[in-house]
Design brief:
This protein is globular. The two termini are about 30 Å apart. The longest helix is centred in the first third of the chain and has 22 residues, at about 20-40. The chain contains nine helices and three strands; from the N terminus they run H-H-H-H-H-H-E-E-E-H-H-H. The chain has helices at about 20-40, 45-50, 55-60, 65-85, 95-105, 110-125, 170-175, 175-185, 190-200; strands at about 130-135, 140-145, 155-165. Strands 2-1-3 form a three-stranded antiparallel beta sheet, with helices on both faces. It is mainly alpha-helical. It has two domains: about 20-85, Fe,Mn superoxide dismutase (SOD) domain (Helix Hairpins); about 95-200, Iron/manganese superoxide dismutase, C-terminal domain (minor pseudopilin epsh fold). Bound molecules: manganese (II) ion. Manganese (II) ion binds next to helix 1.
Length: about 200
């Protein structure tokens, strides 16, 4: 059975950028609902229960038809939020050296990268996420995906992600997604992004 991960910080740790009430509801209600739905979806599939949620998404195309959609939606919700909490931290970090080098090569500068990523988040219509990913050829990309779709299902490893579902920001920012994404840059756990990059490229 899948369960909620331990949070490494308090709900109010990311104030004033991400407010405590949004963090608590996002984690204990929305994330929990994805966990519950994933557990329900695979309750009759012991072989799937033996896999990690990431493995389910990587193998999404091979899922039995009866569980493919719930694994895509609820499994994506589980994995994406597990990742999201790890990608956040207090303390106004800066991008690490390897990532900075990679962003400069791909986008010209860290500022230009932030601009492109922000635009992907702001221009995404409806619910979804903006992603920075790296593929097996070590190509990095920025794009958005709808709903809880995961880049893992298309062979890409997430390095950074921002949740642009309204549940991620509506209590504090209402319809002002640009203010929420601007706040996100203040709470990115760049050390974790650097670790993920190192694991992906070896
Ligand atoms: Mn969310």
């Amino acid at each position: 059975m899948f369960s909620l991960p331990q949070l490494n910080y308090q709900f109010n740790a990311l104030e004033p950028w991400f407010d405590a009430q949004t963090m608590e509801i996002h984690y204990s209600k929305h994330h929990q609902a994805y966990v519950d739905k994933l557990n329900a979806a695979i309750q009759d599939y012991p072989d799937l229960q033996a896999k990690t949620a990431e493995e389910l998404l990587i193998d999404l195309a091979k899922m039995p038809e009866a569980v493919k959609t719930p694994v895509r939606n609820a499994g994506g919700g589980v994995v994406n939020h597990n990742l999201f909490w790890q990608l956040l931290a207090a303390g106004e970090q800066q991008p690490g050296p390897r990532l900075t080098e990679l962003l400069k090569a791909a986008f010209g500068s860290t500022d230009k990268f932030k601009e492109v990523f922000t635009n992907a988040a702001l221009n995404h219509f409806g619910s979804g996420w903006a992603w920075l990913t790296i593929d097996p050829a070590k190509k990095i990309e920025i794009f958005s995906l709808p709903n809880q779709d995961s880049p893992l299902s298309s062979g890409k490893t997430p390095l950074l992600a921002v949740d642009v579902w309204e549940h991620a920001y509506y209590l504090k920012y209402q319809n002002r997604r640009p203010e929420y994404v601007a706040a996100f840059w203040h709470v990115v756990n760049w050390a974790e992004v650097e670790n993920r990059l190192a694991r992906a490229v070896g």
